[in-house]
Amino acid sequence: MNKLEKELDVLLKINKEDVHLLSYILESEDNLANIRKYENQILRIITTSSLLDEVLKILNSLKEKIKFEIIEIKENSGSAG
To answer: Given this model, what pLDDT does residue 1 score?
Structure first.
């Protein structure tokens, strides 16, 4: 990862039963995103600033099959949890 590149958290509101399918799809692309934590209907995905557009493109293409809402994109605090 480039020193200028930032790690980002993409927070999704999603039903528990849809997490596995979404995780499977996103993690099938090597080094695109990491699925980190699901708590209180919020799924935390970590990606990098250079890959964010690609992650968002994939997420938007899945909205017809999987119900979720992107609620926040923010710089990762350095926490893996």
So the answer is: 53
- Rounded Cα distance between 54 and 41, Å, is 23
Q: Summarize pLDDT for 58-77 with one digit per residue, the tens.
A: 999 999 999 999 999 999 98
Q: Give per-residue burial for 67-76: e unless 16+ CB within 10 Å, then b.
A: ebebeeeeeb
| 3-state SS class at 35 | strand
Query: Among candidates 17, 12, 61, which has minimal Cα distance to 37?
Result: 12
Which residues have C-beta within 8 Å of that of residue 36, sequence separation ≥ 6? 9, 44, 45, 46, 80, 81
